[in-house]
Amino acid sequence: MKGPNGPKIWPIVGSLPGLLENGNRMHEWIAENLRVCTGTYQTCICAIPFLARKQGLVTVTCDPKNLEHILKVRFDNYPKGPTWQAVFHDLLGEGIFNSDGDTWLFQRKTAALEFTTRTLRQAMGRWVNRAIKSRFCPILEMAQVQGKPVELQDLLLRLTFDNICGLTFGKDPETLSPGLPENIFATSFDRATEATLHRFIIPEFIWKLKKMLGLGVEMSLSRSLKQLDNYMTDIINTRKLELMNHQNGGPQHDDLLSRFMKKKESYSDKFLQHVALNFILAGRDTSSVALSWFFWLVSLNPRVEEKILIELSKVLVETRGNDTSKWLEEPLVFEEVDQLAYLKAALSENLKTLPIGARGLKTCHF
Asked: Per its record, what are the GO molecular function terms (predicted)?
């Protein structure tokens, strides 16, 4: 049986067989369907009459005009909706990536204000510079000396994870340390994210039943969430004591969690935990995946690599002189990065060609 203008829809199970069969190549499968259907198609995840209208009917589109309408022109009319929020609630609560309306707007404004402050910008520079200089570059140099390959994507994932944790709640998990150790928070976060995403490919009533019975990935999700809760609870309790000590002359903290805790409004520990987890989700995989794709594309285009190096050299001559040995003493600062127009253009082209958020789910208000 063929869908209205998309993939096969079977009685009862809808397009679920296709989703499961292509679970390891979801983006390619969706793109293939979109090409056949000239940019937009409809499908049904669950073809059971009383469930189809609630969860099963889906319109998939990559048409620029449709995307502009949904994400910009009528943004308020297309919230994340109950399906998305139910899937992510256990992990993200009512954080910025799992909320709509006033709750989303408040967090969006608060975060935007904090990220534009000079203090947080300086903190970001400190975390990134330290990780690159003391950990990332030495690992690459050692691999070069020993003539051994490195898993660049894993290194970038560890780099961005350490940075976003430091920026979000002021604690360094040190996953990019020598030997590349495992970290219980990083491992639990990975497992929780993977188990949560698994909910998207099965009907809601099935994963909720598995959650109630503690079966399959839902059992793994429950364990991971408990470990995350313990880790974050310790951090929040410790930070409360540190902020109290700061009032009496103790050390100052400039991470995002501390900034939320210093505000006049009173937030529950669970809300603060979800705020932190939302920003870790936003800043970890997105940055590392974008950088992985970027280095891969640059490796395939030597001409682009040459232009990037020429531009870097010109900027470094102006800011650090002609002695090339001094160029690598410290990572680039914001003022130097601001002058790299071609590099910014290459990064933008990378994001356009291989977007890090290739899929998004919205619910339409009729």
From this structure: heme binding; iron ion binding; monooxygenase activity; oxidoreductase activity, acting on paired donors, with incorporation or reduction of molecular oxygen
Cα–Cα distance for residue pair 231/120, rounded to 1 Å: 23
Question: How is domain 113-285 classified at the architecture level of CATH?
Answer: Orthogonal Bundle (1.10)
What kind and span of H or E run contains 41? strand 40-44
Taking only the tens place, the pLDDT of each residue in 4-30 is: 567 888 887 888 888 888 888 888 999
Percent of the chain with pLDDT over 90: 50
Gyration radius of the chain's alpha carbons: 23
DSSP result, 223-250: HHHHHHHHHHHHHHHHHHHHHHHHHTT-
Ordered by start, the domain boundaries in the chain are: 1-78, 113-285, 301-353
Q: 50 pLDDT exceeds 70?
A: no
Residue 45 pLDDT > 80, yes or no? no
* Sign of torsion over alpha carbons 9, 10, 16, 18: negative
